[in-house]
C-alpha cells in the first residue's frame, strides 16, 4: 500500500507516479487531496485498487483495463471513456458523458449523473459493461447504445428519473429504471416494458453491489416497480438510405 | 498580426464566478486561484477577470479601461473623451512586470461623468450616451479599444494564462464583492488583448465557454438597436443581448434567461395554457436573441450574476453554495480550490440558470436607518 499526497502535483507528474506503482504490482494506492488532476487511471491495466480523496479531474479511467477506482467525493466529466474492464465506485454525483463508448467493466455512482451518460456503450460475448446510478440522469442517457446495461435507481424519487432523448438511436443493450418514464422522453427506437423474473435476477446482482458499496438496504430498493427499455431492432437506420 | 475574424483556429475554455451575497468585499486572489486550477483548459492565448465593487471612491463615475496601440490613438481618444466627459482621474492601470505577459499595449483607466451640457444636447440618458461613446471609439479610432465601461467595476484582461494575467494586473490588491474569470482556448479566431474575455458594456460582463452559431443572426438583430459589433467574436453579442433585455427592455432576469436559452417548441407544447402563451410570445418576439450553439456562460450585472448553459448542455457547469457565497465554474475542482467544504454542490441542467444576487434586505435596512428623520 502506498499513499500519495496529490496536493499541488500536476496531473502529468501524478499519473507518472501512479503508472509506475501499478506496473510494479502495488495492491492499493491511496491518493489524498486530489483536486482536478485529469486522466487518473487512464490506459492502465492490472489489479491495483486506487482510493481517491477529493475531486479527480476529467477523463478519469479512460481506456482503463482492469483496476478498481473508488472516489470518496464527486466525479467530474467523462469518467470511463471507452473503458475496457475494471470497476469504478463514486461516493457522490458525477458529471456529463460518463461511460462513453464503454466496452466492459462497471461504474457505480451513488447520486445523480449529468447529460449523455452511457452513450454508445457496446458489448461482445461476456464483455458487458454496466453503469448503476443511485440518483437520476440528464438528457441523452444511453443515446446510440449498442450493448451493455444502465440501471437508474432514482433513490431520492425525483420527478424526472431520466431526461429527454433517452435511448435515442438505441440498437443494443438494456436500460432499467426503478420507476416509470413518460413516453415523450424516449427515443422512437425504444420499447418500454415491465421487467420479468429474468430481468429481476439480472438487476439483483448489481443492486447488491450498489448496496454494499454505499450502505443501502437491498430490499427497500428492490421492493419497487422497474421498467426496462430495449431497442426495437439492431439496425434502426438500416433502411434509411435503401 | 491578423485579428479576430480573419483566421480560424478550431479548438475549450474555463470559466469561474464568485459572489458574496452580503456585498462584503474580498481580494482577487480567490478567483485567480480558482481559475488557475483549470489551467489545462486554456492555452495561454487569453485570460481575464471582471471585478465588481472595486472602485468605491468613484462609484458614481464611469470607469473606462482602455487599450491603446500607440500614443496617437491615446491622444485621439482623450480628445473625444474630454470633450464629452469630465474626467475626475486618469492613470495608467498598475501592472507588474512578469515573464509570461508580453507585448502589452498602453493600458489606461479614466473615471468620468458625462458633461451636463453635452448630455442635455444629446437627449440621451447617461447610459445611452456612454454606449455611443464606447462604440464610437471602438469602431472609429484605430488602435484604441474601450474594454470596460461600468461603474464601480472593471475588466482586466490580456493574452496569457489567467493566473499570469491576475499577477500582471496585481489583482490581489483589489477588493470586490463579485468576480468573474476566464481562461481562453480561442475557437475560430486568434488571441489578442481585446478579444480576451470578459466582454463588457456598462455594468454587464460576460465570460463564455463555447461557440455561438447564432452570432450573425444576433449581430444583425442588435444592429437594429444601435449596437455595433466591433470584434467579430461570438461572445460580444451575449453582452449586448443582456444589456438590451435587462436594461433597455426591463425583462425579469428569469425571462431573459428563457430568451437566450428558450424552451424547445415541443417542450412548449407540453406546458400549461398560461405558460404556453407566455413562451410562445417570448419565442416569437425574441427569436433573433436566442443564443444557439454550445455554451456555458456567466453574465454579471451590478446586482449579481447568472450562470447558464445552452438547452442541451453541451458545455460543463458546476455550482456550489456555502453560507452567503455562491460559486460557479466549469469544474468542481475550481470551486473546491477556494471553498473547502461547500454546503451543496450541483450541476445545473441545460437552460436552467443559477441566479446569484446580492441580498437586498440588508440594503433596505441600511436605507431605512439612513432615512429616519425627526
TrEMBL record, chain A:
Which positions fall inside the Glutamate synthase alpha subunit C-terminal domain?
20-192
**Gene3D superfamilies from the entry?**
Glutamate synthase, alpha subunit, C-terminal domain
GO molecular function annotations of the record: oxidoreductase activity
- List the CDD domains: arch_gltB
User: Which InterPro entries does the record cross-reference, listed alphabetically?
Assistant: Archaeal_gltB, Glu_synth_asu_C, Glu_synth_asu_C_sf, Glu_synth_lsu_3
Q: Which Pfam families match?
A: GXGXG
Q: What is this protein called?
A: Glutamate synthase alpha subunit C-terminal domain-containing protein
Look up and give the organism this protein is from: Caldanaerobacter subterraneus
Which lineage? Bacteria, Bacillati, Bacillota, Clostridia, Thermoanaerobacterales
Automatic annotation (TrEMBL), chain B:
Question: Does this entry carry the keyword Transferase?
Answer: yes
What does the record give as the active site? 13
Q: Fetch the PROSITE patterns from UniProt.
A: GATASE_TYPE_2
Give the Glutamine amidotransferase type-2 domain ranges.
13-359
Q: What InterPro entries is this protein classified in?
A: GATase_2_dom, Glu_synth_lsu_1, Ntn_hydrolases_N
Concerning Pfam families, the annotation shows:
GATase_2
GO molecular function terms attached to this record = transferase activity
Keywords attached to this entry: Glutamine amidotransferase, Transferase
Q: How is this protein named in the record?
A: Glutamine amidotransferase type-2 domain-containing protein
Q: Which organism is it from?
A: Caldanaerobacter subterraneus subsp. yonseiensis KB-1
Amino acid at each position: 500500500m502506498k499513499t500519495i499526497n496529490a496536493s499541488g502535483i500536476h496531473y502529468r507528474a501524478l499519473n507518472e507516479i501512479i503508472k509506475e506503482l501499478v506496473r510494479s504490482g502495488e495492491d492499493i494506492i491511496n491518493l489524498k487531496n486530489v483536486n482536478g488532476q485529469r486522466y487518473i487511471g487512464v490506459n492502465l491495466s492490472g489489479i491495483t485498487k486506487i482510493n481517491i480523496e477529493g475531486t479527480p479531474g476529467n477523463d478519469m479511467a479512460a481506456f482503463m483495463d482492469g483496476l478498481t477506482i473508488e472516489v470518496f467525493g464527486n466525479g467530474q466529466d467523462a469518467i470511463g471513456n471507452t473503458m475496457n474492464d475494471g470497476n469504478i465506485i463514486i461516493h457522490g454525483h458525477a458529471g456529463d458523458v460518463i461511460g462513453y463508448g464503454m466496452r466492459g467493466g462497471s461504474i457505480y455512482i451513488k447520486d445523480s449523473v449529468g447529460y449523455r451518460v452511457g452513450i454508445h456503450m457496446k458489448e461482445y460475448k461476456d464483455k458487458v459493461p454496466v453503469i448503476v446510478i443511485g440518483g437520476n440522469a440528464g438528457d441523452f442517457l444511453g443515446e446510440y447504445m449498442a450493448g451493455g446495461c444502465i440501471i437508474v435507481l432514482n433513490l431520492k424519487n425525483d420527478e424526472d428519473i431520466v431526461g429527454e432523448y433517452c435511448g435515442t438511436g438505441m440498437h443494443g443493450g438494456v436500460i432499467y429504471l426503478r420507476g416509470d418514464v413518460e413516453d415523450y422522453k424516449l427515443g422512437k427506437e425504444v420499447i418500454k416494458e415491465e421487467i420479468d423474473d429474468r430481468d429481476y435476477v439480472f438487476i439483483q446482482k448489481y443492486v447488491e453491489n450498489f448496496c454494499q458499496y454505499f450502505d443501502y438496504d437491498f430490499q427497500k430498493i428492490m421492493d419497487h416497480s422497474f421498467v426496462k427499455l430495449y431497442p426495437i431492432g439492431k439496425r434502426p437506420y438500416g433502411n434509411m438510405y435503401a | 498580426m491578423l485579428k479576430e475574424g480573419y483566421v480560424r483556429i478550431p479548438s475549450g475554455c474555463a470559466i469561474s464566478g464568485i459572489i458574496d451575497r452580503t456585498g462584503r468585499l474580498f481580494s482577487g486572489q480567490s478567483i485567480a486561484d480558482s481559475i488557475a486550477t483549470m489551467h489545462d483548459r486554456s492555452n495561454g492565448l487569453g485570460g481575464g477577470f471582471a471585478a465588481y465593487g472595486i472602485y468605491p471612491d468613484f462609484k458614481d463615475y464611469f470607469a473606462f479601461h482602455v487599450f491603446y496601440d500607440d500614443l496617437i490613438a491615446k491622444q485621439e481618444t482623450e480628445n473625444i473623451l474630454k470633450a464629452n466627459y469630465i474626467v475626475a482621474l486618469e492613470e495608467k492601470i498598475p501592472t507588474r512586470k512578469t515573464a509570461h505577459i508580453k507585448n502589452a499595449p498602453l493600458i489606461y483607466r479614466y473615471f468620468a461623468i458625462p458633461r451636463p451640457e453635452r448630455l442635455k444636447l444629446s437627449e440621451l440618458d447617461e447610459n445611452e450616451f456612454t454606449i455611443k461613446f464606447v462604440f464610437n471609439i471602438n469602431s472609429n479610432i484605430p488602435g484604441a479599444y474601450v474594454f470596460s465601461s461600468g461603474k464601480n467595476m472593471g475588466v482586466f484582461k490580456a493574452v496569457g494564462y489567467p493566473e499570469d494575467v491576475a499577477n500582471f494586473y496585481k489583482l490581489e490588491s483589489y477588493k470586490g464583492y463579485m468576480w468573474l474569470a476566464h481562461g481562453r482556448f480561442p475557437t475560430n479566431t486568434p488571441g489578442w488583448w481585446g478579444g480576451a474575455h470578459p466582454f463588457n458594456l456598462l455594468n454587464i460582463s460576460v465570460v463564455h465557454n463555447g461557440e455561438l452559431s447564432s452570432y450573425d443572426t444576433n449581430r444583425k438583430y442588435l444592429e437594429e438597436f444601435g449596437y455595433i459589433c466591433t470584434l467579430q467574436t461570438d461572445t460580444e453579442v451575449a453582452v449586448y443581448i443582456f444589456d438590451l433585455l435587462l436594461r433597455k427592455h426591463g425583462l425579469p432576469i428569469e425571462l431573459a434567461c428563457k430568451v437566450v436559452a428558450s424552451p424547445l417548441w415541443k417542450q412548449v407544447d407540453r406546458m400549461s395554457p398560461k405558460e404556453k402563451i407566455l413562451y410562445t410570445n417570448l419565442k416569437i418576439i425574441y427569436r433573433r436573441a436566442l443564443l444557439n450553439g454550445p455554451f456555458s456562460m456567466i453574465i454579471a450585472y451590478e446586482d449579481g450574476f447568472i450562470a447558464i448553459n445552452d438547452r442541451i448542455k453541451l458545455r460543463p457547469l458546476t455550482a456550489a453554495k456555502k453560507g452567503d457565497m455562491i460559486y460557479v465554474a466549469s469544474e468542481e475542482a475550481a470551486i473546491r480550490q477556494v471553498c473547502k467544504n461547500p454546503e451543496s454542490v450541483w450541476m445545473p441542467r441545460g437552460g436552467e440558470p443559477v441566479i446569484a444576487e446580492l441580498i437586498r434586505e440588508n440594503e433596505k435596512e441600511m436605507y431605512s436607518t439612513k432615512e429616519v428623520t425627526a
